[in-house]
Design brief:
The protein is mostly helical and 767 residues long. The chain contains 45 helices and no strands. The longest helix is centred in the first third of the chain and has 30 residues. The N terminus is likely disordered.
Length: 767
């Protein structure tokens, strides 16, 4: 019984084990089948995507791609997910990969065509649109994109033909009529264009985009009531859409109805308050209009109402930065980082804030970590460039801006930064390319036109410059820069009355424009009327009492007017209003030194250096004060600290070398510093004198003579140069030449400090 019972009881156990092993084997076989596994990841990703769980979907699509890097469908869905997450650079890369792996993916090809078209690359856009048409010759969206690409390339006739073909492919598609109308409008055929805009509305009476396009056409024609009707119709068709409401607000602004525009945005916020993009709309409106106080108040309210909305927090922090409320912005960003250390945007914002807090070294360190983790983030590269610039590393800054521009060609900020670099370098060929690209990238921004005007002016094309500046005025009538530039242009044309009008218009556009006020001041000074210039500045200060720059201008005028005490008070006020106004700090220190208050000047420079530890102007000026007081060691220490900031700065190197040569120090180091100065200042007589004097101290008289001759040639009335050259000739035993230079020293400066020594040398020669 035991034996039978044991046998019977053993069978189920063995059977259970066999079944378990069979099941395990079956499951293991599935998990090792890559086709099955990748499909599971893919399907799960699609499920998450449909639920709006984009982070989870992203992980699943990446899992599928890890199993099969050639999985085109997964690359495409991953691109769609990344777009939802706002990672556009990586989304583009995945989209491009999807289209490459599966050229028959018409959606991917069409999206690439749209991206390339928006990025100012019509040839690439055309290629992808044509790829769709090769698969589907009657594909109307592809035909429209082909038409738009050719229009962007300047092939208007071909674009027109293709636009008509798109309508033939699908006569009931409103977008095709809109495209045709845009081409006709651009060619000047507004009557026919209007017919096609109307046709777009008639073929799809429920299309908000069609009504919007017709409304925008009417707005461009300044047919305000017709435009308003269409925008209101678009709002009725798409009551949850922001674009129709924003267009209506812009229409009111174009007519000067600012209150109506603001009320439209208030109504929009109320109507769309359940959506983040809706409750933000009023704050975004204030921001685009430059109304920072209202924008700040609105986003402060939104931040309190929606503390979990990271987008609101980030925008609020940016507004605070624009108001120079850097510490408050830091508090908000720190809260963001506390909730999510991996938030790339918050980390970029942290670096931006650190730059504004005069902590460029910390900013660079933080942003370097960001670009390491997110190398495709263009904003991070752009901000890192600003940090490097603040650190005094212009080459590294330019490299980062070029990287940002390459990653996001449609992003204007890196292009603006690179254009500013090109202008500073006098590279007008590069500036021409950059400004042209800026105009394409951001046609509603004045910057491209302003830079392009600088190119035209350099080429002597004043008419072209004026056209560019008027275009800048047209897109940004409240930006003073174009008015100031036109004022400067009129000054160069000796048309002072017209120049004055433009400078006044600039001040009307922006009462705080120091450049506009300086233009008016310069006109008054040129006319010999300094009191008028002073009155101009004082009147403007009455309108803008917190302008540090205005007090700086006032102080300079008061110095010119022989009123040093008043000037000192103005410079003092300028530094109180803005402790980082370095020119004001330096003017104040100069007046303090002139009044015998060198201690105050030194204290002012030291205080400014605490906030601006990398500003070499402060080191140079402070070192000069120490030198004037005969405090050579303190001057040397300051110059050495400056060289820690920028080791090859030629001005600092020159000053330190000369100090060491005259007051003792490492002679070899002094020679090396003097050589650095000469390399950096090859056309400056002072650097030639310093290097020549260093060679003299070394006893290398022929090299000294060569350098000192260059110094004398560059500044023939400088007694120091002649004295040094005379001593070098004496060292080389060129007696008559030495005598001539020493005599010339006394002719230029009879009371020269070394006059007794020179007379003794000359007397010994006569004996």
């Amino acid at each position: 019984m035991k034996s039978e019972s044991g046998a019977l009881s053993a069978r189920p156990a063995r059977l259970g084990t066999i079944l378990a092993l069979a099941t395990l084997s079956s499951l293991t076989g599935c998990s090792h089948n890559p086709e099955v596994t990748k499909k599971k990841y893919f399907d799960k990703g699609n499920s998450y995507f449909a639920q709006g769980k984009f982070n989870e979907a992203s992980i699943e699509f990446q899992n599928a791609i890890q199993i099969d890097s050639q999985y085109a469908a997964a690359h495409y869905q991953y691109a769609e997910t990344l777009e939802k997450l706002g990672n556009l650079p990586l989304a583009f890369r995945e989209l491009y990969q999807a289209a490459t792996l599966d050229p028959s993916n018409k959606d991917a090809q069409l999206q690439l065509a749209q991206i390339f078209l928006a990025s100012g690359k019509p040839v690439d856009a055309r290629n992808h649109a044509q790829a769709v048409l090769n698969l589907d010759p009657q594909n109307a969206p592809a035909q429209v994109l082909l038409s738009q690409a050719d229009a962007a390339s300047g092939q208007s006739s071909l674009a027109l033909s293709e636009a008509q073909h798109a309508i033939e492919s699908d006569p009931n598609r409103a977008a095709s009529y809109i495209n045709l109308a845009l081409i006709q409008e651009k060619s000047g055929d507004t009557a026919t264009a209007e017919q096609n805009y109307l046709k777009a509305v008639s073929v799809d009476a429920k299309s908000a985009p069609a009504a919007m396009s017709l409304g925008q056409f009417y707005a461009r024609q300044k047919r305000w009531p017709d435009a308003q009707t269409q925008f209101q119709s678009a709002i009725a068709l798409d009551p949850k859409g922001i674009a129709p409401r924003s267009s209506l607000a812009l229409l009111y602004l174009a007519q000067g109805q600012k209150d109506a525009a603001e009320q439209t945005m208030r109504d929009s916020k109320e109507a769309l308050k359940s959506e983040p993009s809706g409750y933000r709309v009023l704050g975004d409106y204030y921001l685009t209009q430059g109304e920072l106080d209202k924008a700040s108040a609105e986003f402060a309210s939104l931040y309190a109402e929606h503390p979990a909305d990271a987008s609101v927090a980030k925008t609020y922090a940016q507004v605070l930065l624009l108001q120079n409320r850097n510490d408050e912005a830091a508090t908000i960003d720190n809260a963001l980082l506390k909730s999510s250390l991996d938030d790339i945007d918050a980390r970029v914002l942290q670096g931006q804030i650190l730059v504004r807090q005069s902590k460029p070294v910390d900013a660079a360190r933080a942003l370097e970590a960001v670009v390491k983790d997110a190398p495709a983030n263009a904003e991070a590269h752009y901000q890192l460039g600003l940090a490097y610039q603040a650190n005094g590393n212009p080459g590294q800054a330019e490299t980062e801006w070029r990287t940002a521009a390459k990653l996001r060609p449609e992003m204007p900020d890196p292009q603006k930064a690179l254009a500013a670099v090109a202008l500073q370098k006098g590279d007008f060929s590069a500036l021409n390319d950059l400004s042209t690209q800026l105009i394409k990238t951001a046609p509603r921004s004045p910057d491209g036109y302003l830079f392009h005007a600088a190119v035209a002016d350099h080429q002597g094309d004043q008419a072209g410059a004026e056209t560019d500046l008027k275009n800048a005025m047209g897109v940004a009538p409240h930006d003073p820069r174009a008015y100031v530039a036109l004022g400067d242009l009129r000054v160069s044309q000796k048309r002072s009355d017209d120049a004055e009008k433009f400078f006044q218009q600039a001040l009307q556009a922006d009462p705080a424009s120091a450049e506009a006020l300086t233009g008016l001041v310069n006109l008054a000074v040129a006319a010999g009327n300094v009191p008028k210039a002073i009155t101009l500045v004082q009147n403007q200060i009455a309108h803008v009492p917190d302008s540090s720059k205005f007090y700086l201008v006032l102080g300079q005028l008061q110095l010119r007017n022989q009123s040093p005490s008043e000037a000192q008070a103005s410079f003092q006020k300028a530094t109180q209003l803005d402790p980082n106004n370095i020119p004001a700090v330096m003017f104040l220190a100069n007046t303090q030194v002139a009044h015998g208050s060198a201690d105050e000047a030194i204290a002012g420079y030291q205080h400014a250096l605490q906030s601006n530890p990398r500003d070499l102007r402060l080191y140079t000026a402070l070192g000069s004060v120490y030198e004037a007081r005969g405090e050579w060691q303190q001057a040397e220490d300051i110059y050495k600290k400056a060289l820690q900031v920028q080791s090859d700065n030629p001005v600092i190197a020159n000053n330190l070398a000369y100090l060491m040569l005259d007051h003792g120090g490492d002679l070899n180091l002094a020679v090396s510093l003097a050589q650095t100065a000469r390399r950096g200042l090859p056309n400056v007589a002072n650097s030639a004198d310093t290097l020549g004097w260093a060679y003299y101290k070394q006893g290398v008289y022929n090299s000294a003579i060569d350098m000192l001759q260059q110094a004398v040639k560059g500044d023939p009335k400088n007694p120091d140069f002649h004295y040094h050259l005379g001593l070098a000739y004496q060292g080389a035993e060129k007696v008559e030449m030495a005598k001539a230079e020493l005599q010339r020293t006394l002719q230029i400066s009879p009371n020269y400090a070394q006059a007794p020594e020179i007379r003794q040398i000359l007397s010994a020669r006569q004996d």
